[in-house]
Design goal:
The protein is an alpha/beta fold and 209 residues long. The protein has helices spanning 5-10, 12-15, 32-45, 58-65, 75-78, 120-124, 144-155, 196-205, and strands at residues 21-25, 50-53, 69-70, 84-87, 105-110, 133-135, 165-174, 177-188, 191-192. A hairpin with a 2-residue loop joins strand 7 and strand 8 (177-188). Bound molecules: S-adenosylmethionine.
Length: 209
């Protein structure tokens, strides 16, 4: 990123056309699973519309810079609070199209799913962003990329209730062997929206819960 990044982000006329999502990296390690979700989220939102913030480790920044804007600073340092809207399953209100203005930056936790959910978005993100709007996309836990997909649809005018979701998906990883992902996924053309790279990863690793 250029040295004048902060100034650029603070200029609403410029940024309104650019950043729509900030993914605040909050896991201690950039695992392969997380990298796959980030990369899919960027494809869904559009490369120029996302910044991954709070990436403290230079090696992790280098990996991410191959496909997305990256910042070592946290989202609170980069944008005025009035522009931020945190997506948090524990928020009281659900996101609706009128919540998202031209210069709104929707903040997604760079946090992997927990089963059961531990409320880490609230603990690690919302509680640190006081006086910032918080909205849920339902009470169930979506993936990072699924969150970006659903929030984008709402920003484009859909109501949350109009977006089909499925709770829990089962992926066959080998003959007679499957993995259940205990998270909620949006359906696109009747099929759960999941990164093909994540499916390949699960098949390779045979990940179990
Ligand atoms: C895989 S989720 C992690 C949720 C975390 N385990 C928790 O209990 O808060 C990653 C991020 O997607 C967003 N997210 C997931 N489900 C959501 C929902 N139902 N409503 C709003 N945001 C959601 C949040 O920003 C969250 O930090």
């Amino acid at each position: 990123m250029s040295a004048n990044t902060e100034q650029t982000y603070r200029n609403p006329d410029e940024v309104a056309k650019v950043i729509r999502f900030a993914i605040e990296h909050l896991e201690p390690k950039l695992s392969e699973w997380l990298l796959i979700e980030y990369s899919h989220a960027v494809r869904i939102a559009g490369r120029g519309r996302v910044v991954i913030t709070n990436v403290k480790k230079p090696a992790e920044r280098r990996k991410l810079q191959r496909f997305v804007r990256v910042e070592s600073r946290g989202v609170a340092e980069l944008f005025p609070r009035s522009r931020l809207l945190v997506l948090d399953p524990r928020a009281r209100k659900s996101l609706c199209p009128t919540d998202v203005g031209e210069d709104t930056v929707m903040v997604v936790g760079g946090i992997l799913g927990d089963d059961p959910p531990q409320g880490r978005t609230e603990k690690l993100l919302s509680s640190r962003l006081r006086r910032v709007k918080r909205r849920n996309l339902g009470k169930e836990q979506l993936s990072i990329d699924g969150t970006v997909y659903v929030a984008k649809q709402i920003a484009e005018g859909k109501q949350l209730e109009e977006i089909p979701l499925v709770c829990e998906i089962e992926i066959r990883v080998a003959p007679g062997c499957s993995v259940v992902l205990p998270f909620t996924y949006p359906l696109r053309q009747g099929r759960p929206l999941i990164s093909p790279r994540l499916v390949a990863y699960l098949k390779r690793k045979g990940v179990r819960f």
